[in-house]
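// run 5 | inverse folding | seed 20
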């Protein structure tokens, strides 16, 4: 059989489609390449401008300065520990909740789903949340980074929709063979749910990794603050120092900044370096989850 030749309208559509996708790809990729070039460039030279894709004066001093800072390394490890713990526990607990809600024999299932949905419509605000965390004695502890992030109703609904699409005959045949609900969940439901579980894991992991708000308002100990919070503090302090230095500033701040610039490491270059450091793990993990993500994110869009 010969290959069907594309008509002129099809070729025009394909060309425009690829052009738009290429523009979006370049738009999303260029900021990362720009930060990467600045992170490997001499900070004092970068202040002159004119760097777009590749470093002009290559140096590793920015990364050496970043990894020699114990607070930066500690915040990095806190983010890794939090992301791993929250992702594993959240996916497991959400799957258990979604499996229970997907069982048609659950008494009062409609009312339970409505209750969970109703609680997502309102928020108590920052002050009631702070009071609740203080009464739970998790303020300024590692658990304030973990416990509030374990539940998300949207993730539970996505999983429930996926579980509803699993043929009921599989669970019924397992129960006839003597399997209980827990055995059905572990041996049948979870192995068949890898796409949606990978999707939820990606949602939860990225959300935890990028969350700076929790560490900013509920943790005062710098040794417990995650990387995103530490980066936000660096940006805020650098902006404040630039304002004070433009108005004269203090001699100590100006002296410290001058010493960093003499070594080729400026506050701006250090911020770019830290952005690359905290972005790289997510970029490395995403390709391994992409094949599951594409399938899981479309769950519920097709019906038999």
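// decoded
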């Amino acid at each position: 059989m010969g290959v069907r030749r594309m008509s002129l309208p099809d070729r025009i559509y394909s060309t425009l489609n690829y052009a738009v996708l290429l523009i979006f790809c370049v738009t999303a990729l260029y900021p990362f390449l720009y930060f990467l070039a600045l992170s490997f460039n001499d900070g004092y030279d970068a202040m002159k401008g004119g760097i777009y894709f590749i470093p002009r004066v290559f140096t590793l001093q920015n990364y050496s300065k970043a990894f020699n800072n114990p607070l930066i390394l500690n915040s990095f490890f806190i983010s890794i520990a939090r992301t791993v713990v929250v992702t594993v526990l959240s996916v497991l607990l959400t799957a258990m909740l979604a499996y229970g809600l997907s069982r048609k024999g659950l008494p009062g299932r409609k009312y339970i789903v409505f209750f969970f949905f109703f609680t997502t419509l309102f928020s108590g605000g920052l002050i009631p949340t702070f009071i609740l965390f203080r009464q739970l004695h998790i303020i300024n502890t590692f658990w304030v980074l973990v416990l509030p992030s374990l539940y998300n109703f949207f993730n539970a609904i996505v999983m429930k929709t996926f579980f509803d699409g699993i043929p009921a005959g599989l669970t019924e045949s397992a129960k006839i063979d003597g399997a209980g609900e827990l055995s059905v969940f572990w041996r049948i439901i979870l192995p068949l749910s890898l796409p949606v579980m990978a999707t939820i894991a990606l949602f939860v992991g990225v959300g935890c990794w990028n969350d700076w708000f929790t560490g900013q308002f509920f943790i005062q100990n710098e040794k417990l603050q995650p990387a995103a919070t530490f980066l936000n503090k660096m940006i805020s302090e650098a902006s404040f120092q630039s304002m004070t230095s433009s108005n004269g500033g203090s001699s100590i701040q100006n002296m410290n900044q001058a010493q960093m610039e003499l070594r080729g490491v400026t506050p701006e270059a250090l911020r770019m370096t830290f952005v690359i450091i905290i972005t790289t793990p997510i970029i490395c993990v995403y390709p391994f989850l992409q094949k599951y993500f594409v399938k899981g994110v479309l769950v519920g869009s097709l019906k038999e």
